[in-house]
Amino acid sequence: MSDFLSNFSGENYEKTRENKNKQKEQKKSKGIKNSEEKPSTIKKEADSVFVGPKNTVDPSSKNIQQTTNEKEEPKQVENPDDVIYTKKRTKKKKYEPKKEAETPVAKAEPVITPQNPDEFIETDPTYKKKRRTKLILIGAGSLAAVILLYFGYYQLTHVKVPDFEGKELSEVREWTAENGVKLQVEQKYDFDKEANLIIDQTVKNKKIKKGKELVVDASLGADPEEQIQLPEFKEMKISEAKKWIAEQKADNIAIIEEYSDKVAQGDFIKFEITNKDVKAEEYKRKDKARAYFSKGKEVFEKNIAMLDFTGKTKEEVAEWTKKNEITLKVEEADSDKIEAGKVISQSISKDTKVAKKDTLTVTVSTGKAMIVPDFSQFTAEEAADKGDGLQVQVKQLYNNTVPYGHFISQSVEIGSKFTEKDDKPVIQVVYSIGKPYIKDLRDNTVEGDLQKIFFDDYQSKGANITYQVYYVDSTVTKGTVVKMSNYNEFVPIDSVIQIGISKGNLKPEATKDSE
Q1: For the whole prediction, is pTM greater than 0.90?
Q2: Is 237 left (phi over 0), alpha (psi -120 to 50) or beta?
């Protein structure tokens, strides 16, 4: 059978087809002499040829002719899977003629017809049972493997969630982070549970898949928006007030104890709400308030001897008063003798006995003061050097009444004192340069220079002198100043000068005569 199949594989199949084609051509050229065979018989043989080997129904009949096999009814096998194909290999005789292989025709019926008398069929009656048993064992093993894999996968991808109720939220966050579980926190107000304690959870004492979400309800404590009826604190002792605050969880009410010469120890002094707009009958847990209670009268023994701090630094005094719980009050004054930062005098003399909480006042030197002089006693040239350490800025401005060179004003009052620690101002001192004098700008000034001249010469020096321009017919170059209402004279500081500008539209007389 293997020899037969080898004719249909690879190069052997192509060679076989070439040989058959050559035989067909030879038969056509010579003519078919075997008239004994009928065309119908040849057609049947062509129809009964299949690709591959075909099993014979009765292997014992080895001498049956091929034409006889084609006429016989093919025996149909009930189950092709139960058939075992075998073949006995025999040597072909050299004198046996080659059979022409016709083009295989596929048939729809699963019929196995005999082709080679050397082939036979052997049936195994236990094959179905063995095959069924094998399939069952394979299926059971596969199912067990799947179950085992699923169990291992489930153990690796799931984790048991503990009961977190009543525990801190931070503990839940730590557990979810370690076990790869997402956490969603829903916060709610709960009077019975402190803030950040777990109230409830979606999964408890059960397994959850890693990567899934665990939802927990966390407490925010008592509701701050809840309105609370305040008690009569004035009728309560401090211990009773603290107990009420704890029971109501009114943590925004602070208990403050302070000494009092009038109220007995432990008694109520006063109650105040921080937000003045909130009334006592509208008080809510979120509102801040203070309840004051007395610590009684504080009595100190005068057993501290005062030191002499004259000439010592302010820091030394502050250190001593802090150590002895003395209240320190500091005043400052300039001094020509005591350098800046050191004590000039003190309110309590040396060796006087004082008690805790007594007040000590010391005067500390700010150094030598800089006094603003009277600049009217100096000229403009002298003023800049008379500041005594202060910065002086001298200005000279036009003035209608003050003669040239005389003092007009100063920006800082005479006799003002400034020390090193003060912000020292710039003193502006003004001297007069008299009335403004208007120069003759005709024939040598163009219109474009007027702005700069009037600002630099007059406006920047305190004279509010302006000008107005009009245009006249003239032989002078266009844009040149040819007329002025005032020139070469003194004018008031708020004058307006009329200036005529040449149009340059007229020709000189000499040019006209030549024409």
Answers
A1: no
A2: beta
